[in-house]
Design goal:
The complex is a heterodimer of chains A (554) and B (224).
Chain A lengths: L2 H32 L5 H10 L9 H24 L15 H12 L9 H4 L2 H31 L9 H27 L9 E4 L5 E4 L4 H10 L20 H25 L3 H28 L3 H6 L11 H14 L14 H12 L10 H21 L4 E2 L2 E2 L2 H27 L11 H16 L14 H31 L15 H33 L1
Antiparallel strand pairs in A: 1-2, 3-4
Helix pairs in contact in A: 1-7, 1-9, 1-12, 2-7, 3-4, 3-6, 3-17, 4-17, 6-7, 6-8, 6-14, 6-17, 7-8, 7-9, 8-9, 9-10, 9-12, 10-12, 10-13, 10-18, 12-13, 13-16, 13-18, 14-15, 14-18, 15-16, 15-17, 16-17, 16-18
Chain B lengths: L1 H40 L1 H4 L3 E3 L5 E4 L56 H18 L26 E2 L1 H14 L4 H10 L1 E2 L10 E3 H15 L1
Antiparallel strand pairs in B: 1-2, 3-5, 4-5
Helix pairs in contact in B: 4-5
The chains are: A mainly alpha (554), B mainly alpha (224).
Chain lengths: 554, 224
């Protein structure tokens, strides 16, 4: 069997697996966020929090919950790293410096998991398992909660109430993320991922001497790292490390985990707004972009244009033998079209166009299918923009799901789509204009520029992957990327919740012959076009200087 | 205003309590439970898939690549490969930036060099020349076009435990000669240690270098 055919078959297997879990998981999540019943352990948790899960919140209250929980999380994680040197179970690692601790705390709370540290050389068991992995769960649950609040905004009328943040947060963790993680972690251990609390120890080698091994709760962190579209590796090599991703099967399973919740959330959305077909239209949009990007990535990586790859006879630099080109390309697209940022191969050593595809994937706003929750709300914002554009074309007030998209709504949507491009382009321009940031580059020329463009694209879009040649552990990058991650995560959430509140207050407008049918393929086409044009116009000049220049020269 | 400040304080306090409770659940109970089950059900895998030689001595992990080098000589910066053994993929250092420490596990990572990077072009060119030279024997000449890509490029982790079957086959004549074994014998050894794709299509065909070298050592020990 040729590697290309094997790659295509792996992609098909992935589609089948995602298809099989789409309905049960999507329906389950709809039930989780609609149910009135609280399980007993959940009641204990609410009691410990001191929150009444039955109180409905309007958008400002919901937002306060999101921001308060996240602010406390940043502070807690920051302090945990700052005192690591005095904690037991830290493998002898010292406390993390203030700028890096801020960067890492912001990174994990913002569901980005950008890492300016080397996991196996900096973080002990307590910080990894009790700090970083916890944020993998809760930052994902926060993302889903905000998406569900927006969906409720479409589904509810004349109320302004969006649900209870604490209930949504706790249910997301307890009823969705934890059960899948327990099973998934054991699957990964069965494949060979490690799961122990051993310290750093010496292990004998074939030719004598020894290697130094790091123990750790790797499988349990790996599974939620993918499932919660987080991406922060236990080890520096992330999912390329054999202890995190031991074989082809674990690789495919990890890609599945990355994609399963974001895709299934479109079913949850359809259920909650009372039209499964509306969910299918969103799903079709996501799937079209995802499959298109994957096909392009496989094409460019198998074609391997580039001087070094031509000499080598293949683009295997930075890729593992057990995954090959196919398994690496599928992973790279899945991780950058979601907010994951885990890598099983190193994007900086992809072909020029391949690197460009990973960047463009993030620049689309990570909505195909996007991060857990953030992918759905990002895509719904684009849907609002698309109906608005369609409305302008025919000269009538646009509506989506029975809600009018008026001045107020379109302002929130427009602000949403302006946040990340502004962060990415301004910070990139600033870094290029200043004398010192360029010292962090490993590569020169177009690819050196790409390293910096990639860093801010990844940070502001909460991805976390990198053109890792960039030495990002400097005060400049730790601070600016930290700020980009926080603003790129929480400003959009403000606009999403404001939009949700505004929608939930409306009285639904009846469907007429002139209503744009947003469940039809025509709308899917319109939506794909809107996404590509808006992003293309925003980022084209920057992409032309980086990956396009590199790709065309090869 | 007092009321709003009090309100903010209350929400932050709730947030802190929520974080602490969820930390106990997802940061303590969950990893301990998974570790407990994993250690009972898959003890070998959960602890790193160690491989032992014929004497029962641990020689490494099935999952982690190693170097098979001669002892470092005076004045050498990097040790020369011990050509009796099958050689793994290159694992290039990264200068002062992010570091790949040549199959020392304590820090994993890639070179992150782009396709048009001068260093990478040189590494690949040099590696290719070395593979051709090292593997050509009196009656077996390696052509540059025979060298597969994995033989001249570094992996993502810098710890790749595998090489492609093509690269293993290319080393057969040299390994047979250095160990005074028959070519057919070594060819069979490689074939026995070649893993196909899982279920025929998942992942890539590969040869585990440590397992192959362990078997090779047993073979030479049995013979000699």
């Amino acid at each position: 069997m040729s590697p290309v055919l094997a790659g295509i078959l792996q992609l098909l297997a992935l589609v089948v697996a995602l298809g099989l879990s789409y309905r049960p998981l999507g329906d389950h999540m709809a039930k989780v966020y609609s149910s009135e019943k609280h399980y007993r352990p959940e009641k204990w948790i609410y009691k410990a929090i001191g929150a009444n899960p039955n109180v409905e919140m309007r958008w400002p209250a919901y937002l306060r919950g999101v921001l308060a929980f996240s602010a406390v999380s940043v502070l807690f994680l920051y302090l945990l790293q700052r005192v690591q040197g005095s904690l037991p179970g830290s493998l002898g690692f010292v406390s993390i410096d203030p700028d890096q601790a801020f960067n890492t705390a912001a990174s994990f709370v913002a569901n980005t998991n950008w890492q300016s540290y080397y996991g196996e050389q900096a973080m002990g068991h307590v910080v990894q398992t009790g700090g970083l992995a916890v944020q993998n769960f809760v930052s994902a649950a926060v993302g889903i909660a905000v998406a569900v609040a927006l969906v409720r905004g479409f589904a509810r009328s004349r109320t302004g109430e969006l649900g209870n943040f604490w209930a949504d947060l706790v249910r997301g963790v307890v009823r969705i993320l934890l059960p899948i993680s327990v099973i998934g972690a054991l699957v990964l251990v069965a494949c060979g991922a490690i799961q122990n609390f051993a310290g750093i120890h010496e292990v004998g080698q074939f030719t004598g001497g020894s290697q130094q091994w790091n123990g750790g709760a790797v499988a349990s962190q790996e599974v939620i790292k993918e499932l919660g579209t987080n991406g922060g590796g236990y080890f520096n090599a992330n999912s390329a490390h054999p202890f995190e991703n031991p074989n082809g099967l674990s690789n495919l399973f990890e890609i599945y985990l990355i994609l399963v919740i974001p895709f299934a959330l479109t079913r949850t959305f359809g259920r909650m707004v009372g039209s499964i077909r509306q969910g299918y239209a969103i799903l079709a949009t996501m799937a079209t972009i995802w499959l298109g990007f994957t096909a392009l990535m496989m094409w460019t990586e198998f074609a391997h244009h580039g001087p070094a790859f031509d000499i080598a006879g293949g683009a295997m630099e930075g890729k593992e033998t057990r995954f090959g080109i196919g398994g690496s390309s599928i992973f790279a697209v899945a991780t950058t079209l979601t907010s994951t940022g885990a890598v099983n191969s190193f994007h900086s050593s992809y072909t020029g166009f391949g690197g460009g595809i990973t960047m463009l994937g993030m620049q689309l706003g990570e909505i195909a299918p996007g991060g857990v929750g953030s992918g759905l709300y990002g895509m719904l914002i684009m849907a609002v923009i698309a109906v608005f554009i369609a409305g302008l074309m025919v000269g009538r007030t646009p509506e989506y799901l029975g809600k009018k998209i008026g001045t107020r709504e379109i302002k929130f949507a427009a602000l949403y789509i302006l946040v990340t491009p502004a962060l990415v382009l301004c910070f990139t321009a600033l870094a290029m204009a200043l004398p010192t940031p360029a010292n962090s580059m490993t590569n020169s020329g177009a690819h050196g520029f790409s390293e910096i463009l990639y860093a801010y694209t990844s940070g502001a879009n909460n991805n976390g992957s990198a053109f890792a040649g960039l030495n990002a552990d400097t005060q400049w990058f730790n601070s600016t990327i930290g700020i980009a991650m926080l603003l790129g995560r929480f400003l959009p959430m403000v606009f999403v919740l404001a939009l949700a509140g505004s929608l939930a207050e409306q009285t639904p407008v009846p469907e007429t012959a002139g209503t744009l049918r947003t469940e039809k393929p025509l709308f899917t086409g319109l939506l794909v076009g809107t996404i590509m044009i808006i992003t293309g116009l925003t980022y084209f000049p920057a992409l032309a200087l980086g990956p396009l220049a590199e790709g065309l020269a090869a | 205003m007092n009321n709003s400040a009090g309100n903010t304080g209350r929400v932050l306090w709730a947030g802190l309590r929520a974080l602490l409770v969820l930390t106990v659940i997802t940061g303590v109970l969950y990893p301990l439970a998974v570790t407990g089950i994993a250690q009972l059900a898959f003890p070998s895998k959960a602890n790193g898939s160690e491989i032992k030689d014929a004497n029962g001595k641990v020689v490494g992990s099935e999952l982690i690549g190693q170097t098979y080098n001669l002892p470092l000589k005076d004045g050498e910066e990097t040790a020369a490969p011990d050509l009796r053994w099958f050689q793994p993929r290159p694992s290039n250092g990264l200068g002062g930036n992010s570091v790949n420490t040549r199959y020392k596990l304590i820090l994993s990572g890639a070179t992150n060099r782009s396709g048009d990077n001068e260093d990478l072009i040189k590494w690949v060119t040099d590696a290719k020349a070395a593979v051709v030279k090292d593997n050509s024997t009196a009656d077996y000449k390696v052509k540059p076009s025979d060298v597969p890509a994995d033989a001249v490029t570094s992996s993502g982790s810098g710890l790749d435990p595998h090489i492609s079957p093509e690269y293993a086959k290319l080393q057969v004549h040299r390994v047979a000669e250095k160990n005074h074994l028959g070519v057919a014998q070594v060819e069979k050894l490689v074939a026995d240690h070649t893993d196909d794709r899982i279920l025929g299509f998942i992942g890539e065909p590969r040869v585990n270098v440590l397992q192959l070298n362990t078997a090779l050592k047993n073979l030479t020990a049995a013979k000699g």
